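Contributing new complexes? Match this layout with 3-isopropylmalic acid.
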Amino acid sequence: MKLNIALLAGDGIGPEVIDQAVKVSDAVAAKFGHEISWTPALTGAAAIDAVGEPYPDETHEICMAADAVLFGAIGLPRFDNDPSAKVRPEQGLLKMRKALGLFANVRPTFTFPSLIDKSPLKRERIEGTDLVFLRELTGGIYFGKRGREDNDNTAYDTCTYTRAEVERLARKGFDMALQRSKKLCCVDKANVLETSRLWRETVQRLEKEYPEVEVSYELVDAVAMRLVQWPNSYDVLITENLFGDILTDEASVISGSMGLMPSASLGEKTSLFEPIHGSYPQAAGKDIANPLATVLSAAMMFETAFGLQDEADAIRAVVNRSLAEGVVTEDLAEGGKAYKTSEVGDWLAKNI
Ligand code: IPM
Ligand code: MN
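Output block (do not edit by hand):
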């Protein structure tokens, strides 16, 4: 099979972790007889510096023409610390999500047997955790009307959802629940917010079409709590954009390191795959960042964008082996030998 992949490395550690995912993907492609054609494109601060725009038209065209997009990370402190900055790397990410119609962000949280004791949570609370968040990604407060009034002394951001936006996300959630343990949790704040009441109402109506799925409705504050008490009690969770942003960061540390969890963003056009972590600028260029979240995002890409299950499984298997054999970056080394980002990538590619 010929795979055309757009490669958006972005900022900070993005290029380093992307390099490892490329090595591993090329190795798995060679093993299974595929040919990958990578097309690099600019995004984030790197794109602002080069062409003044965090998601240039040329990058969009490359993404649209590709079968999948593999994404690193974006964002740099020099933009965060300047409230007056007119263009920000993050705007590129939001523009890209909207332009590619990436309304469903799939963010799994699972544990690795060899890392159970590295988790900030106790073993008995996390063993068996295998949950997945479906975060709505192109609506809500991220894309609502915003502004300033009252001589610049008042600011507002509005959260809006249409029934259609909720329904398409919820349907993906029901479908995913059917393929897993048939449990779906709708996370909202329906005791306060009108948009949440629309979410709940829409999901309740859909329940009739999916009689095998057992649906629960939980308030976001309660979920934030139970997520660290009994993460292994959840399966598929669906939620709006901002709640999903916050809860998935909370969930991402359960496995033992921020640098482990992959994600997929699906929608109307080309799908995109990226690590959950950010651009970790303090580590940029040092060859120390954990590449596994990006490598596992490539596994999700093989599985989801190309239907290549054996290839995805081969990547996951070699990642598990590297963890079991202690071929890990400093975030997981704990006194033992810390491998460089590039050494982990080389090991994975060689052992696949
Ligand atoms: C994420 C990030 C982004 C978001 C930022 C960088 C805009 O935190 O992908 O979760 O809030 O969606
Ligand atoms: Mn986030």
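Reviewers usually confirm one structural detail per submission. For this one: The pocket of manganese (II) ion (ligand 2) is lined by residues 245, 249 (CB under 6 Å).
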